[in-house]
Amino acid sequence: MSRLRRREFAALAAAGLAAPWAVQAEEPQRAKVLRYAFPIAETGFDPAQIADLYSRTVAAHIFDALYMYDHLARPFLVRPNVAEGMPEVSADFRTWTIRVKPGIYFADDPAFKGQRRELVAADFAYAWKRHFDPATKSPNVAGFEEERVLGVSELRERALKDKKPLDYDAPVEGLRVLDRHTLQFRLEQPRPRFLYTLAQSDLIGAVAREVVEFYGDQIMAHPVGTGPFKLAQWRRSSLIVLERNPGYRSVRYEDVVSPAPDDAEGQALLARFSGRTLPMIDRVEVSIIEVGQPRWLAFLNQQFDLVTVPLEFAGAALPNGKLAPNLAKRGIALHRIVNPDRTLFYFNMEDPVVGGYTPEKVALRRAIALATDVNREINGIRRGQAIPAQSLVAPGTWGYDPQLKLEGGDYDPARAMALLDLYGYLDRDGDGWRERPDGSPLTIEYATQPDDLSRQFDELWKRNLDRIGVRLKVLKGQWPEQLKMARAGQLMIWQLGYSAGSPDVQDALQILYGPAAGGQNLARFHNARFDEIYVRMQSLPDGPERLGLLREAQKIITALAPHKYNVHRIVNDLTQPWLSGFRRPLYGNRFWQYIDIDAARQPRPR
Questions:
Q1: Which is nearest to 45 in space by CA: 242, 308, 245?
Q2: Which residues are CB-neighbours of 266 under 8 A, at least 6 positions away?
Q3: How many domains does the chain have?
Q4: Which domain CATH number covers 353?
């Protein structure tokens, strides 16, 4: 170092300042990166084409809905997102007028040819119409049809009849763009809870028409929205990387959260993050790891910042439902809720063995349900991390009654065998296995996945059916491929879970609504009275009449047994000590923008 440089350094040091060359030599500030894993592979990120939870979780952080669920409010609160205030709603709940905030822009993308693209009301109208486009093959179209927006279904029918592309430019009575930033929905029937639909950023977040037309059939890999993050990298079924959207509007934490006064945790989060701009992290890296052990070990080795405890490790992580002392000493925190969900297995009602509505087919399904040992599932496979389900209504959603008891929740192998005997499912050749009433072989085919947890369910299925003398065949496959087969009606029985998308029960009923067959209704269940109830419940305000209809629908499901409901899951999330701000969202699937990472404490990638 020269004499002049030494003198300069000494003077700066005496003043308590660093030399310019010393500042340049300092390590640049590390990016804040959230690292965790999905247990099931995604399918893509186009809101009009996705239905699975994991794809919807990613889409919810890329696209913006008009409204959103408050991250801290419990039980729930819907508030404006990109809408300028709450909607103007007619007294009969049939006309909803919403103004979109001006000055919000889509993330930069080649589809915009170098221009900044402002969010406008027409983007929401376009996003809605895309679910009705036959070319999109939206699995959610039946649910959107039941919102009864005037004229949209007719637009779809014309496209189908004429075998021509959907005319997106045709005027639609119920979907009006009043001006650049004002949108109006006009509905055929009253929809008191239409606000919940308008809060689904993962399904009707604003989509730019230019982007869809630019990418064509590759749109699942090119989501472009106005949300807090944008897709940076995607290796299908392996890695999903999102980065902070540099053009995201200015949003401060305290402006979008409202914890209850008696919510100590929520109030602490509000106090800690007030004044912070969202999102607080720079990047999200989601790995796809279907096997529980490597997910768990990666978290213990500090490679993940967040993990939902795999069931097979619940005993070690949560003895007696409390965080294990060795984890607590490391500063790991537990976040535990009864999730608003239900697990079930469905019967394909068009399958020649288990489908149909004749007494012997109903008896077979009810017998399989009665032979399902849910308590063994909870205490064994699920390590106590669930509560029994009586019906499709999830905890925390309208109409849930923890005291409700239905026959569909019974475990009674003796009654199951008696039903099978009564309706002609007998062991005629003495080999220990029952045949069908016509004497042909009876084999139940159960679709499952090739992971350790699924193998435990396979063993329980075999134990349950062996007990009543019914032969089981297990069909293994990857989840995305099985979803395609399920929608095509190619699986006999498949077990899966459904998380509630809103505080209402209507979404749960949709998975048995006849017109949704092949989409959300994987069972392909059709019952005229059930469909009438579904439609009527859409129009009614919450109250005794609507609740009476829900109970009637539950009785129909119990009687015909297209589903067997198993459990409502207890979800245990663990966070590393350098992650703060986490609270699992009950609805809406959005939380990444609300968390913070202390990058200085977070271990570097190995």
A1: 242
A2: 72, 73, 74, 257, 259, 260, 583
A3: 3
A4: 3.10.105.10
